[in-house]
Amino acid sequence: MNRQVPADISGQERPIRVFGRMMKKGLLAHAYLLVGASGAGKDALAFSLTKLLLCEKPHFGEDLPSPCGSCAGCLKFDHQTHPDLVILKPQGAMIKLDQVRDLQRALSFSPLDSQRRVCLILEAQKINLPAANALLKTLEEPPGGNHLILTATSVKTLLPTIVSRCQVIHCEGLSVSALMERVIEERLCSSDSAQFLACFSEGSISKAKDLLEQDVLSVREDLLNFLKSKREKALLMLFVLSKRISNKRESILLAVQVIRTFLRDLMMLKGLRRKDSKEQKEPSVQILFNPDYENELQAISHRFSSQDLAEHCRWLDKMEWLLDRNISREFLAESVLIFWIRKRR
Ligand SMILES: [Zn+2]
Fold this sequence. Notes:
Layout: H1 13-25, E1 31-35, H2 42-54, H3 72-78, E2 85-88, H4 97-107, E3 117-121, H5 129-140, E4 146-152, H6 160-163, E5 167-170, H7 176-185, H8 191-200, H9 205-213, H10 216-228, H11 231-245, H12 249-279, H13 294-300, H14 306-323, H15 329-343
Parallel strand pairs: 1-4, 1-5, 2-3, 3-4
Helix pairs in contact: 1-2, 4-5, 7-8, 10-11, 10-12, 11-15, 12-13, 12-14, 14-15
Zinc ion binds near residues 55, 57, 68, 71 and 74.
């Protein structure tokens, strides 16, 4: 199986079942728009539906509809050589007008090999305005035998005229508890860290695996150690840690996201403490991103006011924005971390 095609469709069974029913009845829409947060499994779903469409003998049994896996269509799909599969994705930062024009030319010919052609438009939220306007007509009435499948992070990121021409499918991924079960079942990490990994992976087991490859658990541990250390030691740690997290653009983004989970948990713990003092109840760890670090976070929560924590969230927004503006990554990483030292009481 090629690595470009995400195969894990856990959590997407319902849309696949509905799509299969429509396909069997010959009632498919011209265009589908799959929306969901990054990592919710949109690409895996898009490729699964594509393979189903290109299969010559799909199974529509009691269970999930599935491609046969052995016909010429399935084999060409697996080897990425299917002539009736067109994939459009951003070139650089955007999907541009020329790309849409090329697509329109390709769609004007009949499918070469099978009854249908599938055009996948990935990360459609990155389509620029001229390209989006050009795409409208194709979406409304693609030439016969063509199916379009778009993916985007949210309907709000697209022109309403694009959304209204597509059948929208929401990809929600697995629930946190179902994902936790998978993480523990597949022994991806210790059961202590499973809740953090499941919350952080937004319903996607493949995102959980990617995060582990990026060493997310040790980044989290380093950041927590930095957070709870005394001021002098934190200053010494600052430069080593900022070097580590500024290695790549992705590593700063990962660190920023991890810090956001700490900020959120600190806010929750502060809120719970206030509520508990009135109601005399034990705080529930179920609502934390980092329940395995509850004691450590509880111990440092007095160092920051709620306003400081909110201010830090805004600061992180600014850092993310600056990351795309040609500013030294190491400087940005230091700026992200120094906030903890500057603001602590
Ligand atoms: Zn097949």
